[in-house]
Write a structure and sequence with these properties.
Mean pLDDT: 92
Number of strands: 4
Order of helices and strands: HEEEE
Radius of gyration: 15 Å
Helix content: under 10%
Strand content: 25-35%
Length: about 70
């Protein structure tokens, strides 16, 4: 049994839980591996960074939600 303590309404916490996740792919960018979600055209949104180096998480183009051009 898991207990979740939050001030966020349950409807917001569970929003989209039944939706299928968007397909992702792993992309190498400047020697870093990023899991990205394909957007329209030649763009992708960063889902997560696959690195063990804490400094990589400070790079703006590697942060989750960042949009990168694939050109």
């Amino acid at each position: 049994m898991t207990v979740l303590y939050t001030i966020v309404p349950l409807e917001d916490v569970l929003e989209g839980i039944d939706d299928d996740p968007a397909p992702t792919m792993v992309l190498k960018l400047g020697g870093l591996s990023l899991e990205v979600e394909q957007l329209d055209g030649f763009q992708a949104k960063v889902v997560r960074l696959l690195s063990t180096d804490p400094e990589h998480y400070l790079l703006p183009h590697c942060q989750p939600g960042a949009v990168i051009d694939l050109k």
